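Reopening this one. Same input as before:
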Amino acid sequence: MTGRPDRPEAARADGAQAHPDQARPDAARPLPDGWPAGDERRTDALRSGLDAYELTDEDLELLEAADEDAAPADAPPLPVLAVVGRPNVGKSTLVNRIVGRRVAVVQDTPGVTRDRVSYPASWNGRDFTLVDTGGWELDAAGIHASVARQSEAAVQAADAVVLVVDATVGIADADADIVRLLRRSGRPVVLAANKVDSAVQESDAAVLWGLGLGEPHPVSAMHGRGMGTLLDAALAALPEESAAAGPAPAGGPRRIAILGRPNVGKSSLLNRLAQAERVVVDPLAGTTRDPVDETVELDGRPWTFVDTAGVRRRVRQAKGADFYASLRTQAALEKAELGLVLLDASEPLTEQDVRVMQQVIDAGRALVLVCNKWDLVSGDRRAELDREMERELVQIRWAERVNLSAKTGWHANRLTRAMQTALDSWDRRIPTGRLNSFLGELAAAHPHPVRGGRQPRILFATQPSVRPPRFVLFASGFLEAGYRRFIENRLRERFGFPGTPIQISVRVRERRKRR
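Same output, byte for byte:
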C-alpha cells in the first residue's frame, strides 16, 4: 500500500488539500452512497494480494463479515425468562450460574437485589434474556413493596418464569401466595428447588410437588448441580421469539447512562430533563444508590436516561450499600449506548473525573462531557477549566462537551445535539474501498518508520463492526503504538467520529512459504 493514490485530488494525509466534505473535520456527516470505481478496483487488488499471506479461519470470517453494503437485519426479540421467588432463596446465585459469570450481587442477607435487571444468556445454542428480580413479598411495605412491584412487572414482561424455592425450608406461605399470582399471569412456570447440594437432599425437593406446578427440578445454584435439566425445561417453555418483549421502537429510545463522581448533579439533571421530581436530590453525596431509568422526550424523540450512583474513588474499598451501588453503576453503563459524564465545573478537574471518562471508553460507549453548575462558574474559572481540560484530557479531545446548569436549566437543550452527534459517530461505518484508499494515501505520505531493517506495510484494512467503530489492519509487520495513534488521529481528521472511541487492532501476517 505504498503506491501513489488513484485520486490525487482527494484529501492528502497532511490535510493540505481537503476533500469538499472535509469542511468541518470534527463534525458528523453522512458518507456518500457510492465511491469511484478506481478505489473499488484497488481494494479488490489489495484483497487478492492478501491471499499470498498466511490467513487464519478467523481472518477469513472477519473479511467476509465486513460487508459495508449489507444492511443489518432487525433481529427478532429474544425470549425473556424471569427468575422470581421470595427473598434469600438464591435467585441471584442462580442467575450468575446461568449467565456464567458474577453479574448479580450476592450476599447472605435478604434484600440485596432491588431492581429487575436483564442479562443476555445462552444455553445449547439458544440465546435468551434472563431477568433477575428482588425478593417477592406480598404484604411488604416501604421499599420492599416497590421491590415486589418490580417483580410483578418482570413477570408481565416475560415469556416464561422460573420460580425459585428453598428446598431445605419446604413450602412457605409466601411461596404459595406467589404461585397463585403466577397462575393468574398465565405465564408458563418452571419450578426450581434450590439448595439441593447432594443426592441425599433430593427427597426435600419432592415436597414441592404440593405447589401444583408440576415437577420440581432439584438444583444447587451454588455448585451448579442439576442446572442442565432445569435449563432444558426452561427453554422448552420459551417461544422461539418473544411475544412479551416486542421489537424495539424504530429510531429509539437510545439508552443514556448519567455518570460522574458523587454530588456533581446527576439526579438534578435527570429531574430537569424529565421536568419532574423523578429522583431524590440532596446535598449529601451518595443519595442515589440504585440505577433509575426514565424515558424522556427531547426534541420530538424518546431517550432513556439512567441515573446512577456516584463512582467512588476506590470501589474495592467501599462497603455495604456503596459497594453494591458501584457494581450497579458499572452494569448500567454496560447496558447503555452513551455515557453522559458530569463534571462540577465550579471545582478543579480531579483524577476521579478522568477515571469515570476512562470507564466509559473502556466499555466502548459513546461519550459526552457535561460541565454542570455553570451558574457558579466565574470568568477566571472558565479559563482555568479550559486549561485543565486541555492538559488532562489530551487523549480524548474528540469527546463532545456541553456547558450547562441542571439547577437553572441553562443550555440543557443543547444536550440532544451533542448526544445525537456522538451516537451517529458510534454507529458510523467507513466503506472498505474508501478506507483502503485513505490509508494508501496516508502510508504513501507518512510510511511507518524502519525498525530492525524492515518497514512494516499495511496490506489491507477493514471495519468489521460498529458501536464502537472497530478497524482491523492486516500488516506485514508490527505497527508501533505511536503509529496506530497517528492513524486514529488522521481517521478522525478525515472522517470525523466526534464523541466515540475508535478501536484499532493490527494482525501481523507472514507470506506463505513457497513449496
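So the earlier flakiness isn't reproducible anymore. For the record, The mean pLDDT is 79.
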